[in-house]
């Protein structure tokens, strides 16, 4: 058994995967995409901390090149032109702009997302750095596969979000060359549990019916 399965954070991943992804509406999946956007910001910030802590780590440098200022999600019109480089959270920001939502709803989501980011930024740097391995070496791939149980990816925003998820599964899933292999050497334990708890809580706060 993989030692990581002994940790509580893996049970939280199970709980995220068990959410009712196939039973929500298109509007609710738009809300889930908003939640993921804020997660993508903290992912980039935590990866930046990992790079600062381990500046000579070539594998983490390669991972940063795959996640930041990269063209590996391009082209996807009208979000990304051929060869256009951007951070992955910028891809998500542009994705959300494809289908504007009610200003009150947008303001509420922004306030909740900023509160999530503020809490993340208060956590210790070591835990933030170590979260990257739990995300990239299987954790996010499982979550993305669960989200893809949803079937109605028919508006431009959801189509771009689906592209983001499918491509990230491809990035992460190769056991030797994928993103997981670039950070597997980092230790994993329940210091990362608060990050996964907050991730799940954000999904069910943005989309309450997910937990029904």
Overview of this protein structure:
With 212 residues, this protein is an all-alpha fold. It has a single domain (3-207), classed as Heme Oxygenase, Chain A (Up-down Bundle), CATH 1.20.910. The chain contains nine helices and no strands. The protein has helices spanning 8-17, 26-53, 58-67, 88-96, 103-121, 125-147, 156-173, 179-183, 193-206.
CATH class division: Mainly Alpha
Q: What is the N-to-C order of secondary-structure elements (H for helix, E for strand)?
A: HHHHHHHHH
Q: Tell me the overall shape.
A: globular
The domain tally reads 1
CATH architecture name: Up-down Bundle
The fraction of residues in strands falls at under 5%
Helix-residue proportion: 55-70%
For the secondary structure, the number of strands is 0
Averaged pLDDT? 95
**Number of helical stretches of at least 4 residues:** 9
> What is the CATH H-level superfamily?
Heme oxygenase-like
Backbone structural class:
mainly alpha
* Low-confidence region ranges: none
Strand count, sense and closure of the main sheet? none
- The gyration radius over C-alpha positions equals 16 Å
Task: State the distance separating the first and last CA atoms.
Answer: 31 Å
The CATH topology, please?
Heme Oxygenase, Chain A
């Amino acid at each position: 058994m993989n030692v990581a399965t002994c940790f509580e954070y893996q049970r939280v991943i199970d709980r995220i995967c068990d959410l009712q992804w196939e039973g929500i509406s298109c509007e609710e999946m738009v809300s889930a995409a908003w939640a993921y956007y804020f997660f993508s910001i903290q992912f980039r910030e935590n990866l930046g901390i990992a790079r600062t802590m381990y500046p000579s780590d070539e594998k983490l440098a390669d991972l940063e090149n795959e996640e930041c200022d990269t063209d590996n999600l391009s082209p996807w019109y009208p979000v990304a032109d051929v060869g256009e480089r951007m951070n992955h959270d910028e891809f998500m920001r542009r994705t959300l702009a494809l289908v504007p939502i009610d200003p009150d709803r947008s303001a509420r989501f922004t306030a909740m997302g900023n509160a999530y980011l503020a809490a993340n930024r208060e956590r210790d740097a070591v835990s933030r750095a170590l979260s990257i391995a739990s995300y990239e070496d299987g954790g996010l791939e499982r979550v993305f596969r669960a989200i893809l149980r949803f079937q109605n990816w028919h508006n431009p925003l959801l189509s771009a979000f689906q592209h983001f998820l499918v491509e990230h599964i491809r990035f992460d899933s190769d056991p030797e060359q994928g993103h997981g292999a670039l950070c597997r050497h980092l230790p994993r334990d329940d210091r990362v549990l608060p990050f996964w708890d907050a991730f799940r809580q954000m999904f069910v706060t943005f989309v309450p019916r997910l937990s029904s």
